[in-house]
């Protein structure tokens, strides 16, 4: 399962809301969170890909800051976990 350019751009924009550049440090997108970072995570935990894609699809009509606020308001970390994962 691969993420397309629009999905990666959405993820990068939302990640930058949480981790902006500053004080000489890169933003999340500058650090590759939606590029090689995403690829690494999915290669180690492929069962979260579908959940992440569903979240990105649901929030694609929102501006990045609004999407992050919506996720924070309705935080359900277990949705991205795969079957059989231990709860927090």
Task: List the topology elements.
Blueprint: H1 5-18, H2 36-44, H3 49-59, H4 64-73
Can you characterise this structure?
This protein has helices at residues 5-18, 36-44, 49-59, 64-73. By secondary structure, it is mostly helical. The protein has one domain (5-75). It starts with a helix and ends in a 15-residue tail after the last helix. The mean pLDDT is 89.
- Average per-residue pLDDT, rounded, comes to 89
- Stretches where pLDDT falls below 50 for ≥5 residues? none
Number of domains: 1
Q: What's the total number of strands?
A: 0
Structural class: mainly alpha
Q: Quickly count the helices.
A: 4
Features:
single chain; 4 helices; 50% helix; 0% strand; globular
TL;DR of this structure?
Helix content is 50%, strand content 0%. The protein is mainly alpha-helical. Helix 1 crosses helix 4 (64-73).
